[in-house]
Amino acid sequence: MNPRQLEIWALNVIDMVKSGKYQEDDLVELKTELPEPNAKIARRIAGHANTARGENILWLIGIDEKSETNKIPGFNNNIDLANWYPSLQKYFIELAPK
Q1: CA within 20 to 30 Å of 47's CA: 16, 30, 96, 98, which one?
Q2: pTM of structure
Q3: What is the pLDDT of residue 32?
Q4: Residue 94: inside a domain, yes or no?
Q5: Looking at the 3D structure of the chain, how many domains does it have?
Q6: What is the mean predicted confidence (pLDDT) over 75-90?
Q7: Mind giving me the DSSP string for the chain?
Q8: Does residue 41 fall inside a structural domain?
Q9: Position 95 in a domain
Q10: Is residue 96 part of a domain?
Q11: pLDDT of residue 77
């Protein structure tokens, strides 16, 4: 999947969330906040990737589909993004998902 296709997919999901017509599925995970990179999140990502059976998966951070007033609160964590993914990769035995 190229960056443009990924952006279109993400924007479509965001539009559906804003209109109240979206529920998570096997390919998309919505998180209000970026989780700490730990073994639990690594297992969750691995499980999500396994469930998708080779299809691309999408995690969108800063979206609260259950909120009645502000479904897109935005990203507000104090996590260093430059180190988040490298910190997560160490929990995978072989290759971490891209």
Answers
A1: 16
A2: 0.81
A3: 87
A4: no
A5: 1
A6: 84
A7: --HHHHHHHHHHHHHHHHTT-----SSEEEESSPPP-SHHHHHHHHHHHHHHTTS--EEEES--TT-SS-S---------HHHHHHHHHTT-SSPPP-
A8: yes
A9: no
A10: no
A11: 66
